[in-house]
Design a protein that fits this description.
By secondary structure, the protein is of the alpha/beta class. It has twelve helices and 15 strands. Helices cover 36% and strands 14% of the residues.
Amino acid sequence: MKKPAPRRRPAPETGDDGPPVPFLDLSRSWPSLEKEVLEGIAAVFRDSDFILGARVAALEAEIASLCGAPHAVACASGTDALLLALQALGVGRGDEVVTTPFTFFATAGAVWNRGARPVFADIDLATFNIDPRAAAAAMTPRTRALLPVHLFGRCADMEPLLAAAGGRVAVIEDMAQAVGAEYRGLRAGSMGDAGALSFFPTKNLGGAGDGGMVVTARRDLEGILRQARHHGMSAPHRHRFVGTNSRLDGIQAAVLRAKLPRLEGWTAARAANAARYGRLLAGMSSVRLPAPVPPGEGRHVWNQYTILCDRRDALREHLARRGIGTAVYYPVPLHLQRCFEGLGYREGAFPRAERACREVLSLPVHPDLRRDEQERTAEAVREFYRE
């Protein structure tokens, strides 16, 4: 029998204006990382340092320092970081957690999987983050935690959220997209009871697979988190409570430690790209650009550059024809997801989040984006609205 010929991956289509502009191309950073990453991975095998171990411990210390939080506990994913933080803070069945309907599913999914009820509050369209006044209004005597998301790399307005919590309600920062972001001189992850990071490859600091970490200033939480990620084990074969298996491996730690010294430069490049979009797209009535962070209010780290725009889907098709990659984060708000129908929310419950889902479009902003690619992207956006 004749062996079938191997299937080849199709090459990216060339747009009308030339080679494609990728929304994200992680391979561009590989040449500068290859030697260090491969040497680090080889050392993991040489030392058999596969699960947790010395490299993970070193990464925990480095991330804790970066986030301005004394303690960091690595785990298997950003979703697990949320689950572990919720467990360590005692959130469970019968509790409510106030969060945003405009975010990745894991935020509310983690609450649900702890047996608690996600309670949504509308967003501020200027920042895409949860509106602190709406969050405060959504709190009830059953509220056990506030779970703001630092979306797209910009910190939520934490001062009024912390005031609403009043020390009685836990605050967990979902900072999956915001490593290194700042709010009034404080780093993301250092303001609440805990902060949950993701090292998914597309994040500003991404690994070669899944990975996550919880940072906290609370020593009591650190101990619970370390046990919770390892089946609730307090000593070999002794379990104080039921935890899970959520441990970061040495290979991921080696990759992340090779990338970490470059993070600040990558963040600066993202910020420069965002500022350039602000100049290239200024003055368009059909496009609403991300609101700038006021001087002294913090630092945006631009995991995404997200605009609000008229006729979003048609614009996206137009850009695709030009070979320009885009993404929609997020097309459906969480309160309208089928799995949350039992929560009783209906369309119109959170009009600003729903509008965002209809109008948001993320443009390429990654640190390896070339200036000519960015100019092509901006010109294609302008071209669409001249038609």
